Amino acid sequence: MMKKKIAAIDIGTTKVCTIMGTVDSASGLRILGVGVAPSRGIEKALVADSIKARESIRESILKAQVMAGYRLQSAYIGVTGRHITSMNNKGAIAISHRDTQVREEDMRRALEVAASVRLQPEQKVLHIIPRSYRLDGFEVKNPIGMNGAELEVEVHIIIASTNSVQDLTKVIRGLGVSIDDLILEPLASAEAVLYEEEKQAGVLLADMGGGTTDVVIIRDGSILHTGVIPAAGHYITMDLSTGLGLSYELAEEMKKKYGTLMKAEYEDPDRTVGDDGGSVSFQALREIMQIRVQEIIRLMIMNLPGRKAGVVVPAGLVLTGGCANIPGMVEFVQKFTDVPVRLGIPAGLTGVSIETLKNPAYATSVGLLLWAMKNKGTSHWVDNQPKGLRSLVGQLLNLFR
C-alpha cells in the first residue's frame, strides 16, 4: 500500500515545530522527521517581523528534512491569535420533493443557509464545522435518505482576520512550501490529547502556550465554542520581570528553573533562589505566578456559555501546551476551579522523536496532522480568487457520510 507523505508546521510565540511523516489506512501516522527552532519575529502568535519569522521557520523545516531524508513540499499550518472569533449558526430548509426524501442537494442548501453569516470586510471564514442536524425537529445522525418536511443544520463557524492569515501564508510560501490547509490550533490540540468519552460528556481544553491560551469546548461530541485568550507564558514572565525587578531574560530563566504554583507544606519565607547577581524571594516568585495563572483561568471560565463549569464541562478541564508543564499547574487549577483537571499529553505515536513529542508543548504540532487526517474539508481559505460556497459545501458533505 502506498504511504502518503504528510507534514505540519506549528508556528508559536516561543518555538516553531515542523513534523514530517507518512500515513496510510493500515498503520496510520508514522513520524519521520521533527524540527524545532526558537521562534523569532512572532508575537502573540502573529507575524511581527516577516524576515525573522521566515528564518525561524526555515531552520525548523531544515532540521525536519534532515531527519526525514526528503524535501518538505507542502504542509498543514496552525493558525491562532486574538483576531480569531467564532459562532454557532443554524440553517433550515423545506424538503419539497414529492417523495419527501432528503437528498445531498438538500443538505447542500441547508449548509449554505447555515454558513451565510455577515462578516466584516477584513474577515474571512476559516472553518465551517457541522455540529448537528434535525429532521422535522428530531435530531438525527445522517438525514440523507430519510423522509421529512424540514431539515435544519447547525454549524460552528470560525472566523479570522484576512490580513493576519495572509501575513502568515506569505511567509510560508516564500520558503517554497505549499499550504495544504490552515487549521485552528486548539482544534488540533484537542485531536491530540482528548478522549472520546470527554468529548461526549463535555470538556474544556486549554492550550497554554507562550503568547496565547487557546480554548475549545466540546460537548456531545461536537464543538460548542472556540476562542483565543491573549495571555499565557509570555505574560507570566512579564509579570515576574516587573514584580521582581528583573530583565525579561532573567525572569524567564527564573520561571523555568524555580517556577511552581504549589506551596510547600513547610516553606521558609526567607528562602531566595537564583545567584548573587539575581536572587529573588521564592515566595514572591510563586505568588506572582499564581496571580497571573488565576487570571488566565478566570478568562477560560468566562468562555463557558453562561453556566457553572461543573454543568457545562462535567469531564472538566484538560490543560496542554508548554505552560501546562509548570510544576503544580494541574493541582492549582483543580483547586481553583473545583472541577476535574488533567494534563493533556500526545500519545499513540510511532516513528522517530516520539519521546520528545510526548509532551504538552507539542500537542498542537502533533494534532495538526491528526486533525488533517480526520477532518478533511472543514476549512476554507483562499488568498486570491474566492472559491464558491457550493464547492466548500460539497466538501462538508463528506463529513456526514
Task: Write structural notes for this entry.
It is built from 13 helices and 18 strands. It has 401 residues and is an alpha+beta fold. It has three domains: 4-82 and 163-193 and 345-374, Nucleotidyltransferase, domain 5, CATH 3.30.420; 85-159 and 384-400, Dna Ligase, domain 1, CATH 3.30.1490; 229-343, Nucleotidyltransferase, domain 5, CATH 3.30.420.40. A five-stranded mixed sheet has the order 3-2-1-6-11, sandwiched between helices. Strands 14-13-12-17-18 form a five-stranded mixed sheet, with helices on both faces. Helix 1 (50-68) packs across helix 3, helix 6 (233-244) crosses helix 7 and helix 6 (233-244) runs antiparallel to helix 8 (282-302). The longest helix is centred in the last third of the chain and has 21 residues, at 282-302. The chain is globular, with a radius of gyration of 22 Å. It starts with a strand and ends in a 5-residue tail after the last helix.
Quick structural summary:
This protein is 35% helix and 29% strand. With 401 residues, the protein is of the alpha+beta class.
Look at the structure and give the CATH class of the largest domain: Alpha Beta
Number of helices: 13
Lateral strand order in the biggest sheet: 3-2-1-6-11
Number of strands: 18
The CATH H-level homologous superfamily of the largest domain: ATPase, nucleotide binding domain
